[in-house]
Amino acid sequence: MSSTPPAPAAPHRAEIEHVVRRLLYQRLGQPLPRSARAPRPLIVNVSARHCHLTPQAVETLFGRGHQLQPKKWLYQAGQFAAEETVTLIGPRSRVISNLRILGPCRDLNQVELANTDAISLGFEAPVRASGDIKGTPGCMLMGPVGFLELPQGVIRAAPHVHMHPDDAAFYGVKPGSFIHLRVGGPCAMTFDRMLVRVSPDFKLEVHIDTDEGNACGLTPGTPCELVP
Amino acid sequence: MSSTPPAPAAPHRAEIEHVVRRLLYQRLGQPLPRSARAPRPLIVNVSARHCHLTPQAVETLFGRGHQLQPKKWLYQAGQFAAEETVTLIGPRSRVISNLRILGPCRDLNQVELANTDAISLGFEAPVRASGDIKGTPGCMLMGPVGFLELPQGVIRAAPHVHMHPDDAAFYGVKPGSFIHLRVGGPCAMTFDRMLVRVSPDFKLEVHIDTDEGNACGLTPGTPCELVP
Questions:
Q1: What catalytic reaction does the record list (chains A, B) (predicted)?
Q2: What sign does the dihedral B218-B219-B220-B223 (CA atoms) show?
């Protein structure tokens, strides 16, 4: 465990590019293209399998009073990948070691797997919005000081986009609606049901899982566009 | 090894449904919807990782005079999943056991992996049409009687559709062009670069890999449509 938390993340490269691009168009006296008129640049990130835990679950797995240590800050403010990982044990006694915990703690326990992970371990993980875990499969987690059996919480996260209300207004979408994500490149693909999540705390960011990211061959240079 | 080859595959359920649907519309005196006017029904199949081998490679791995034994006939006439499998050894000494061989033998050796497989083993597998293996990574294969080092041949197969010339005419596409595959359901997704392969020997069939199939959550009931 690191004793000093990592420095807060610097602005994302795409944020700086977005600002510079707008200034350049203005300086040249040219009309802004649609992507540059957007309040925020579009960031598309691949979420590898991970879990969210309650403070009680962290204590069961890591010991009384234990608190998650930030290892890396994520793009959404205050969210981090923790130093801590757990072992996930599936119904066929297959395991995934080093399942990363994302912090801060939440008020429910949830394991998010790609479909390939779920099939490999033997979970029938339904596609759900984060937090909507009623009736989903349970699992066993193992930490350095204890086991924790979850009665439910194993999901495949629906591909989704975090939006600030300004982003939602720009794209003309509402919370809980769907938008298309068009991905270019040699494995060009359009995600036709990208769930829209809106909060004043959110920055514009698409989350897809590793199956989705690998299927469309997403790299830092892959062109991506949200299409209402 | 089975000594008696499996019976040739019965007509695919979708083929029978296609014929019955056309007859019903005719009997009812109703115009055929576009999907029913197509020469063939659309079959979408997920190809798990596999390899194609030359007769010489089969002899190196399985012994002199060895011939692949059909385990299961595939939808394309004469193609089969063999009883034989090999072990694939990647550059990080990680392995995939039980990599299925597809028969009959070809005039080149080729390993087709999903992107997730390739990343897990440490291959930088480019997206290629089958047979286009120049400059792709090599690998080591292990069979029951020997090893075989391939200097090249590890690819991620481009998502593609096999078409009879009648299908190509119906959809208005040419060999080597691209068509869209629209997949419905809770993970609705459109593949925007589905490579068109045409031969009088082909029946209409889309092949996607396990990443792509898992990303769009393909099941036997998932609605799929080719869109030029």
A1: propanoyl-CoA + phosphate = propanoyl phosphate + CoA
A2: negative
* CB burial of residue B47 (10 Å; 0-12, 13-18, 19+): buried
A3 confidence band (pLDDT: 50, 70, 90): low
- Tell me the C-alpha to C-alpha distance, in Å, between residue A133 and each of A1, A106, A109, A151, B84: 31, 13, 9, 10, 42
Judge: B191–A193 Cβ closer than 8 Å, yes or no. no
| Contact yes or no for A157/A130 (Cβ under 8 A) | yes
Residue A81 carries which side chain, given as an amino acid letter? A
Q: pLDDT-based confidence at B7, cuts 50/70/90?
A: confident
**CB-based contact A120:A172 (threshold 8 Å):** no
Say whether the peptide bond before residue A104 is cis (omega within 30 degrees of 0): yes
Q: pTM here?
A: 0.89
Chain A residues in contact with B181 (beta carbon < 8 A): none
Q: How high is the pLDDT of residue A36?
A: 85
**Half-sphere exposure (Cβ direction) of A217: Cα atoms closer than 13 Å:** 24
C-alpha triplet A223, A39, A80: angle, nearest 5°: 75
> Could you tell me if the ipTM is greater than 0.90?
no
The pLDDT value recorded for residue A1 is 46
Instruction: Determine the residue among B132, B212, B214 to mutate to test chain A binding: the one whose Cβ has the most chain A Cβ atoms within 10 Å.
Output: B214
Q: Quick check: A189 and B190 CB within 8 A?
A: yes
Give percent of chain A with pLDDT exceeding 90: 85
Q: Give chain B's domains with CATH numbers.
A: 13-23+31-45+159-227 (2.40.40), 53-157 (no CATH)
Contact B127 A217 (CB under 8 A): yes
The 10s digit of each residue's pLDDT in A166-195 is: 999 999 999 999 999 999 999 999 999 999
Q: Which residues of B touch A216 (CB under 8 A)?
A: 215
**Residues A119, B105: Cα–Cα separation, whole Å:** 30
Measured CB to CB, residues of chain A less than 8 Å from chain B are 114-116, 119, 127, 158-159, 182, 186-193, 209-212, 214-217
